[in-house]
Automatic annotation (TrEMBL):
Binds 1 Fe(2+) ion. Its cofactor is Fe(2+). It comes from the Bacteria. This is Peptide deformylase. GO terms for biological process: translation. Keywords: Hydrolase, Iron, Metal-binding, Protein biosynthesis. Its EC number is 3.5.1.88. PANTHER family: PEPTIDE DEFORMYLASE.
C-alpha cells in the first residue's frame, strides 16, 4: 500500500465522468488498499478514484460505523428517500465547507473487491458520504451543489 496524492479542485480529472470498471483484479484491489490508506492518513471518511487522479468508478468509504471499510466498484444509487441538509467538506477542497441537501436514505448497488454484486441501504452520515463520493464519479464537487460555502475549520462552524 502507498499513500497517494489527493488532487485538488481545479484539476480537470475532478470534472470528468469516470469510466466503468470491467472487472476487479489484483491491480484494482491494490489501488483500493492505497486509497483507503490515503483516506485514513488524510483523516477523511470517503475517497473516490478521481480524487487520486484515476477517472474510474471506484470509491472507498469508512464512517467508523458497523459497516467498517466499504469498497464500492461501479456503484449506482437505486433508491432515495427523504431529504436532509448538513455540512460537508472534501479532501479535494481543503478548508472549505458547505451546506448540501441530500437524500436522507439511499440504497446503493455495487461490486465488491471479490467481484460480487452487493446492495446496501444507508442513512445518516453513511448515506451522505455515499452520495458525496458518487458525485465525484460524475464530475461533481460538493461546492457545485452546496446551498452555502464557508472557509475554515468545520469544528469551529
Amino acid at each position: 500500500m502507498a499513500v497517494l496524492e489527493i488532487v485538488k479542485a481545479g484539476d480537470p480529472v475532478l470534472k470528468q465522468i469516470a469510466a466503468p470498471i470491467e472487472k476487479v483484479d489484483s491491480k484494482l484491489r491494490k489501488l483500493m488498499d492505497s486509497m483507503a490508506e490515503t483516506m485514513y492518513k488524510a483523516d477523511g471518511v470517503g475517497l473516490a478514484a478521481p480524487q487520486i487522479g484515476q477517472s474510474i468508478r471506484c470509491v472507498v468509504i469508512d464512517v467508523q460505523d458497523e459497516h467498517g471499510l466499504l469498497e464500492l466498484v461501479n456503484p449506482v444509487i437505486t433508491a432515495r428517500e427523504g431529504c436532509a441538509t448538513d455540512s460537508e467538506g472534501c479532501l479535494s477542497v481543503p478548508n472549505v465547507f458547505g451546506d448540501v441537501e441530500r437524500a436522507a436514505k439511499v440504497t446503493v448497488e455495487y461490486t465488491n473487491r471479490w467481484n460480487k454484486r452487493k446492495k446496501l441501504t444507508a442513512d445518516g452520515l453513511l448515506a451522505r458520504c455515499i452520495q458525496h463520493e458518487l458525485d465525484h464519479l460524475q464530475g461533481v464537487l460538493f461546492i457545485d451543489v452546496a446551498r452555502s460555502i464557508r472557509q475554515g475549520d468545520k469544528k469551529q462552524q
